């Protein structure tokens, strides 16, 4: 293939078209989303390079907590160092005397709340993906208006036509190769974590039903 027949890369660069599409997407995203969701959407980008949520270490930790509770009673769990917020909240409730059903309700509420927070993050990007083609069409209309206004100036027609065509191209590429893939990956991660966290509910509900062990107060304090 003769590479000389291909258009130069600079042919596809137009600052005005970029400004219309990029600026329109940013402005529309800011206007349609709450500040909290915007912040979640930006912070969520940091999750993309990381490994997906793995519940196995948390299941193992709950099993270890169960062994402690059977030996010393659930009151001994109050001294355990727990980093996961869901497990920490469930253990605190168990220590305060919550039953298995109460723990299941608590964990389900926290799981749903976390999923909704994640939803706010990925919907920022999916909404931006919807805006990009529309902003590309806006750029096309602006370019067409510029063409009709410059019909008597052949040199100006070329620049206006470039804006009209490249704005549509930018909108399609931005939506389908950047924004939509980000939204899809964040959504998939959120669903995976919500599904995996379901495995914690029966284990922690069982922990809530453990009767105090026969350990002495001295063993518990040890």
TrEMBL record:
<feature type="transmembrane region" description="Helical">
    <location>
        <begin position="156"/>
        <end position="182"/>
    </location>
</feature>
<keyword id="KW-0283">Flagellar rotation</keyword>
<dbReference type="GO" id="GO:0071978">
    <property type="term" value="P:bacterial-type flagellum-dependent swarming motility"/>
</dbReference>
<dbReference type="Pfam" id="PF01618">
    <property type="entry name" value="MotA_ExbB"/>
</dbReference>
<feature type="domain" description="MotA/TolQ/ExbB proton channel">
    <location>
        <begin position="81"/>
        <end position="196"/>
    </location>
</feature>
<dbReference type="InterPro" id="IPR000540">
    <property type="entry name" value="Flag_MotA_CS"/>
</dbReference>
<dbReference type="InterPro" id="IPR047055">
    <property type="entry name" value="MotA-like"/>
</dbReference>
<keyword id="KW-1003">Cell membrane</keyword>
<dbReference type="GO" id="GO:0005886">
    <property type="term" value="C:plasma membrane"/>
</dbReference>
<keyword id="KW-0813">Transport</keyword>
<feature type="transmembrane region" description="Helical">
    <location>
        <begin position="12"/>
        <end position="31"/>
    </location>
</feature>
<keyword id="KW-0472">Membrane</keyword>
<protein>
    <submittedName>
        <fullName>Chemotaxis protein MotA</fullName>
    </submittedName>
</protein>
<feature type="transmembrane region" description="Helical">
    <location>
        <begin position="124"/>
        <end position="150"/>
    </location>
</feature>
<keyword id="KW-0812">Transmembrane</keyword>
<keyword id="KW-1133">Transmembrane helix</keyword>
<dbReference type="GO" id="GO:0006935">
    <property type="term" value="P:chemotaxis"/>
</dbReference>
<comment type="similarity">
    <text>Belongs to the MotA family.</text>
</comment>
<dbReference type="InterPro" id="IPR002898">
    <property type="entry name" value="MotA_ExbB_proton_chnl"/>
</dbReference>
